[in-house]
Amino acid sequence: MTQAMLAGLDEVSAHFSRFRVTEISLSKAALGQFDFEPILTSARLLAEARVDAIAWSGTSGGWLGFEIERELCRRIRAETRIPATTSTLALLEALELTGARALGWATPYIGEIQERIIATFAAAGFSCRAERHLSDRGNFSFAEIGEDRIERMVREVAAEKPDAAIIFCTNLRGARLVQRLEDELDLPIYDSVALALWKALALAGADPRRVRNWGRLFSVVPRNDAPA
């Protein structure tokens, strides 16, 4: 999906590295998947490609907390000298820049993860107007969820009139739905994959506004600094 969003931006390339994530829950083993070292190992490999920005395209900050992800970004920059961001921190910035406070959440996660996400954002001043979750422990299975099911969740939360709807999971195929649903529902819809790219482009010195037809997010100018 990231590559599709970059189509037409010939001077911008995307490079990928990964680490192992097989389950999303609050078990000790599942939480341990997000220890820094595997992520830093992936970042070091990306640094060898001399990239201009590194984005953790994942949403674990929603249940682990913003400060953990800020520290991760600081660690990535300290080791690679490359600015870094995450999908979750990019979402926080987009909400702050646009003034959206009451949110509608569409995720594939189990209930206890969903509750943590809502609580994390509530502590930062964002209320939950509506939420839908699919009670899936994933991770691979998230990518098998059809766009029709994701669209249904977005429509259901949109019916409660939030300031913005959030498709919160980088393994969901939600990005292609955003432009059409925004036009129809007259509601900002922020997809996690798009958010990571939006912020990474700014960190790399590119203008996200050149990404067309992928939603209102790309008309917003992000800060060009890494998370503090």
List keywords for this structure.
alpha/beta; Rossmann fold; 4-stranded parallel beta sheet; two-stranded parallel ribbon; 10 helices; 44% helix
- Indicate how many domains the architecture comprises: 1
- Helicity range: 40-55%
* Category by helix and strand content: alpha/beta
Average pLDDT across residues?
95
How many beta-strand runs?
A: 6
The name of the CATH topology is Rossmann fold
In CATH terms, what is the architecture? 3-Layer(aba) Sandwich
Shape: globular
Strand order of the largest sheet: 4-3-5-6
- CATH C-level class is Alpha Beta
- Series of secondary-structure elements, N-terminal to C-terminal: HHHEHHEHEHEHEHEH
What proportion of the residues form beta strands (DSSP E)? 5-15%
The whole-angstrom Rg is 16 Å
For the largest beta-sheet, the strand count, sense and barrel status come to: 4 strands, parallel
Unreliable residue stretches: none
Q: What can you see in these coordinates?
A:
This protein has one domain: Rossmann fold (3-Layer(aba) Sandwich). The longest helix has 15 residues, at 66-80. Helix 7 (111-123) links the parallel strand 3 (102-107) and strand 4. It has 10 helices and 6 strands. Helix 3 runs parallel beside helix 5 (66-80). The protein is of the alpha/beta class and 228 residues long.
